[in-house]
Design a protein that fits this description.
- The protein has a single domain, classed as Serine Threonine Protein Phosphatase 5, Tetratricopeptide repeat.
- Helix content is 65%, strand content 0%.
- The protein contains eleven helices and no strands.
- Helix 1 packs antiparallel against helix 9 and helix 8 packs across helix 9.
Length: 211
């Protein structure tokens, strides 16, 4: 049953492409600096639901602002409290091993600073890292519930998925059907929308068959 949960987490991580053309040296330096920040690394162990904002910050930073040649400058803005800089830097450097560890730390920092998608991504990472931990799954569900309430599409898709499969929460297909309506904020081509819509259609069909 959990296979589909973690497949969807893999889709979530792939939803925003990495910047493959970036300088490996530049990325390596940034990863080292992020992972040497003890306070950030320690905070990344906290459940993102505890840090999720009541309202999302208005930050106009985008992926181009943290592109090749701009990673160190982006890290400087993140250190100064730039929520979007932390989030997009995480997206730029993520991958495997130390890169992914650093990305998770940056997602958590962006979460604390007010980016709902950062909270969603960190919760997905925690859920994947601790597949067999009920506490981690409960944390993930709490986080997805909060980020869905902030209209984060992946937060809603992941919340609906956990509700439909009873991972970290009792099964509640009716609620899953409702929250999955909010997965398409960025249009039908967005990965969160296509994944959420497919799941919602399956749940609606199953409900119709059971009547």
């Amino acid at each position: 049953m959990r296979t589909s949960i973690f497949l969807s987490i893999a889709i979530l991580v792939a939803a925003h492409p990495s910047l493959h053309a970036q300088s490996a040296d530049e990325a390596s330096l940034v990863v080292d600096e992020v992972l040497s920040n003890g306070a950030w690394v320690a905070e990344a162990r906290t459940c993102p639901a505890e840090l999720a904002p009541a309202r999302e910050v208005n930050d106009r930073t985008n992926s181009r602002d943290c592109g090749p040649g701009k990673l160190k400058a982006c890290l400087s803005r993140c250190r100064a409290g730039g929520a979007g800089a932390c989030y997009w830097l995480g997206q730029a450097i993520r991958g495997e091993g130390r890169n992914q560890q650093a990305a998770e730390v940056l997602y958590q920092r962006s979460c604390r600073l007010g980016i709902a998608s950062g909270c969603t991504n960190r919760a997905a990472g925690l859920s994947f890292e601790a597949k067999d931990s009920e506490a981690a799954q409960v944390c993930a569900v709490r986080t997805f519930e909060k980020t869905c309430a902030l209209n984060d599409p992946w937060g809603c898709t992941m919340y609906g998925l956990h509700l439909s499969q009873g991972v970290g929460t009792p099964v509640n297909n009716d609620l899953a059907i409702q929250v999955l309506k909010k997965s398409c904020r960025y249009g039908p081509q967005d990965e969160a929308c296509t994944s959420g819509s497919r799941l919602r259609e399956r749940l609606l069909k199953a409900r119709q068959i059971s009547k």
